[in-house]
Amino acid sequence: MRDRDVRTWSVMIDGLAVNGHAKKALNLFSAMQRTGVNPDSVTFTAVLRACAHAGFVEQGLRIMKEMSEVYLVSPTVEHYGCIVDLLGRAGRLEEVLVLIKKIPTVHLDVVLWGSLLVACRVHKNIIMGEIAAKKMLELDPCNAGTLVFLSNIYASLGDWTRVRQVRDLMKDRGIIKPPGSSLIEVEGILHEFLSGDRRHCLINEIYFMLDDIVVKLTERESTLCCVYFQYS
């Protein structure tokens, strides 16, 4: 393709970024700049996403700075979200908190604090996790996911007292965690399955198939065990 506009470049960069080819995405971004095409807000979202997925922290921070200072592109919640994700993955949680406090109120939402909360669970930082959860509840007081996630952080550290406190808080506020669900598309039809749900019109056939799979796996496991003991 000879004539590439900013939209074309952005789509290609984002395609590489979301499929795990961060270096190629950044190389393409450099090539775009050399051609004289100025990146826009969408382009920078794709580039920052690539940096976040690959852990290119310093490069991502530099690009974020260039975006506003060189290209005069105002940061949006998507850009801030990428930087929060970038720093969170690297365990630089204090920097995330400082960044979020500097973000204009108009861009602050549950998602940004949620990204910090996820990072807190990964890096087992209770203090920062409590701050993030508190801010999320201020924005959305009835968000069951926030309290469940905070409870999971406590559980991962074996702090069962705090787990019970969070569960009691949910009960007092009348907050009920919605059942987990999964979606699958078969021949153009979207099917949703809820945890413990038996309302699907083909539920009997589905469980028959699952039972058949379990039987075959059990037989296979038995065969493998026999082979193992035979040759061990």
TrEMBL record:
PPR repeats lie at residues 5-39, 40-74. One of its GO terms (biological process) is RNA modification. The keyword Ribosomal protein does not apply. GO terms for molecular function: RNA binding. It holds the Pfam family PPR. Keywords: Repeat. This is Pentatricopeptide repeat-containing protein. It comes from Zostera marina (Eelgrass).
